[in-house]
């Protein structure tokens, strides 16, 4: 498989849902029409993987999240719930700013320079494909023209998902943060919104454009691809998840380094430092960061730390 589509799907669904993508996008897929009230989905039990790093007085659980999910998956139970309940602190990738701050941040970073709209980076054939993808979800073909390629890629990767039943409000991160607030747990973030946007915005424009072109080329594959990744996450199969996602990221090594391996190394440094203080921490990051070569678990070996898989 050489599906480059996984790069953006991984970023939006399983790595770090980019801060820009968590705002209200400039265009959105129309909600599917229904003639009868929706009935609640049956709950399907899933068992995502959970790891733990321990010493005499410190415990850090590592849990891979999915930032967008369909309703009806029962993941917050058994070992995951026990580990969460035992923790005094929840650590997530990012705590989202309020909508006004986020919109301002996107406005500062996502807009193309004057005379450098999106079409200036694309061939006529690529522009035609982009316009067709946008029109297929009810957006004008020039909707992305004012933006830089990184932002267009992120939004386009998300646009088909609502019609397929995926809902950011049902994402693991949101549910964990709500549960932490309800239980008066401390909530900390590994990164800021500015940093997460910066990982994308700092990519060279040719790299951003390559990602955009591949995203558009495989626009129609979004449903089966994300369905497969969520199944692998729910089955607690990080090896399969890595095979589906991380190998494809190597097709653009600059993106893989900025979005994945460099961040994993920094987070392993954070864990190593945190082990110096007593307490119990539930660390929830995109599942792609805990799978495959260069994962957080592998990076921990540099610090002589071992992450052990918890049994259900």
UniProtKB/TrEMBL annotation:
Keyword tags: Signal
The keyword Glycoprotein is assigned to this record: no
InterPro entries assigned: TraB/PrgY/GumN_fam, YbaP-like
Name the UniProt record assigns to this protein: TraB/GumN family protein
Signal sequence bounds: 1-21
Organism of derivation: Sphingomonas jejuensis
Pfam families assigned: TraB_PrgY_gumN (PF01963)
């Amino acid at each position: 498989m050489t599906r480059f589509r996984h790069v953006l799907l991984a970023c939006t669904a399983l790595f770090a849902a980019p801060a820009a993508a968590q705002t209200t996008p400039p265009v959105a897929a129309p909600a599917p029409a229904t003639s009868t009230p929706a009935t609640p989905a049956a709950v399907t039990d899933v068992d995502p993987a959970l790891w733990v790093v321990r010493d005499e007085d410190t415990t850090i659980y590592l849990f891979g999240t999915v930032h967008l999910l369909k309703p009806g998956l029962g993941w917050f139970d058994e070992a995951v719930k026990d580990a969460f309940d035992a923790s005094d602190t929840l650590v997530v990738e990012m705590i989202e700013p309020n909508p006004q701050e986020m919109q301002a941040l996107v406005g500062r970073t996502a807009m193309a320079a004057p005379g450098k709209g999106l079409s200036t980076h694309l061939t006529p054939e690529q522009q035609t494909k982009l316009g067709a993808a946008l029109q297929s979800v009810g957006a004008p073909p020039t909707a992305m023209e004012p933006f830089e390629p990184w932002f267009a890629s992120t939004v386009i990767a998300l646009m088909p998902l609502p019609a397929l039943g995926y809902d950011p409000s049902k994402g693991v991160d949101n549910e964990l943060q709500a549960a932490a607030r309800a239980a008066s747990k401390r909530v900390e973030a590994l990164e800021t919104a500015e940093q997460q946007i910066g990982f994308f915005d700092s990519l060279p424009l040719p790299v951003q454009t390559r990602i955009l072109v591949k995203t558009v080329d495989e626009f129609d594959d979004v449903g089966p691809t994300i369905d497969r990744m969520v199944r692998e996450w729910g089955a607690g199969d990080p090896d399969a998840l890595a095979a589906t996602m991380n190998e494809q990221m190597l097709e653009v090594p600059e993106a893989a380094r900025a979005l994945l391996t460099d961040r994993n190394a920094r987070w392993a440094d954070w864990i190593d430092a945190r082990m110096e203080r007593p307490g119990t921490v539930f660390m929830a990051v995109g599942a792609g960061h805990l799978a495959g070569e260069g994962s957080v678990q592998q990076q921990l070996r540099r610090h002589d730390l071992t992450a052990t898989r918890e049994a259900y």
